[in-house]
Specification:
148 residues; alpha+beta; two-stranded antiparallel ribbon; 49% helix
Length: 148
């Protein structure tokens, strides 16, 4: 990325410096010496912060989002994931209630594991002491897989 007076210059976008207008292709066509002569420096692009956790500006600088709101949003997401995972076998529970057909043991085990994972994931989110701990928790959320 190119910087002029601390401001990012976009490739293929015209810019003005010291009352001189430079065309859109100038950064691509100019030599390193030409760019340096007017004070343009080239720096490696920064790694974009994760949008799930940061408000990101045009310079790829991140400001952490509100931890309380993040915890609430991710707790809702955990609930939604658990619902989605259980939904696929809910018909077996209804069938058991209506006609008494047994639920396969592996399905019972799986459903129990999903509910336990949801409880564990919600607790881990709630217990995250600070922003960094929260990010570590939610990037490592664990869910059981179907073994059938």
């Amino acid at each position: 990325m190119f910087l002029l007076n601390g401001n990012r210059l976009q490739l293929d976008v015209p810019f003005t410096h010291d009352d001189i207008q430079y065309p859109a292709n100038w950064l691509r066509m100019a030599s390193q010496e030409d760019r340096a002569a007017i004070g343009i420096t080239e720096v490696a692009d920064s790694i974009r912060p994760d949008d799930r956790f940061y408000w990101v500006d045009g310079n790829n600088q991140g400001t952490p989002k509100d931890l309380t709101q993040l915890k609430a949003d991710w707790t809702k997401q955990v609930n939604q994931i658990a619902y989605s995972l259980l939904f696929t076998t809910d018909w077996m529970v209804v069938r058991k209630a209506e006609v008494g057909t047994d639920i396969p043991a592996d399905t019972v085990t799986y459903r129990t594991a999903v509910r336990a994972a949801a409880v564990s994931n919600r607790a881990a989110i709630a217990n995250a002491a600070d922003f960094d701990a929260f990010v570590s928790v939610v990037t490592a959320l664990n869910w059981p897989t179907v073994t059938a």
